Amino acid sequence: MGIELERTVDSIQVGTRHRTDLGDIDALAASIREHGLLQPITVTIDGVLVCGRRRLAAIRQLGWRTVSVWVRSGISDRLGHLLAEQDENLHRKPLTQLEAAALYRELKQLMAEDAERRQVASRFSADHQPSTDGGGNFPPPSGPVGKAREQAAAMIPGGTSYKTMEKIGHVQHVADDPDAPEALRELATTELARIEAGGPVDPAYQRIRAAAAEVEQARQAELHALAEEAVARVTGPGRGTKRKTPATETVRAPGRWPVAAFVQTWTSLAGWWTHYAPDELAAELTDDQARVFLTVVDGTVAFADRLRPLLTIDPAEVGEAGDDAAGEEPAQHGAAEEGAVPPRHLRAL
């Protein structure tokens, strides 16, 4: 994935996203002058800087004409273009949440690799010269991953925190995991589509975590039942008992999602209509966005009509709550709580 070569210093391109507070370059330059450059900077095949902005600034200050670089192959064209940008305004089309998260994961991996190589190189150095390479706005890594997450997130347009990027990455991992149950992967794929359409990340992340926990609970119950059955078989003839399906194990039709995901979805939507004005939405939503909303509402109403007769709650209570909610204006601070119906009640939409 990479090779170490000599490259002229002037040929290394530094994009806008590397221009930050570089900290004390004089001290780093003095250390490099005395001990040499212990760890090469990382560049793309085209000579675009990936990692090592402070090291590059220091050797330029020293007047070096050439420098040893680590040429990293396999970098996506999208990330290569992002790193090479010389002007923030060149990035005209905003990244979607999923595009930003994909670039974040790629950049984080590259920075973690660079940090790992610097750790190995500095292990045999008395003053651990390269360990201060983060500097300035990018603090030094404390390990192979170290501050790679913060650094990678800071270089991705949009200002999204690394925590949000990590949550999207978790949902993406579940969707791509061939060992995960099909229903869980389908749920994760649906959540990614919601995020891509502008939906909030944390509720989607929490729903996936809850669904995964339910799957793991069922798996553990199954393993426990198998263990009990094995013990019963070896304790002697006639002592075994017929294996029973664990109470926590649920059998779902293909594509069915766990109840925990349903609860999380509707809990996160409680009182949502108190925070929007219909006239504003009508003016700003695209036709496709409006169709998605109305399709979801129609499907929800149809499902509610099937579910309502099966519930033990008072239908009149649900109907009154829905009538009240339909006439509410967008809530001021604190108003949402007053008009909210307990999450276990479906609303009349």
From TrEMBL:
A Pfam family reported for this protein in Swiss-Prot or TrEMBL: ParB_N
Region of interest called Disordered, as start-end residue ranges on this chain: 118-148, 320-349
Domain ParB-like N-terminal: from-to ranges: 5-90
GO cellular component, as recorded: chromosome
Any single biological process term in GO: positive regulation of sporulation resulting in formation of a cellular spore
Protein name, per record: ParB/RepB/Spo0J family partition protein
Organism annotation: Brevibacterium casei
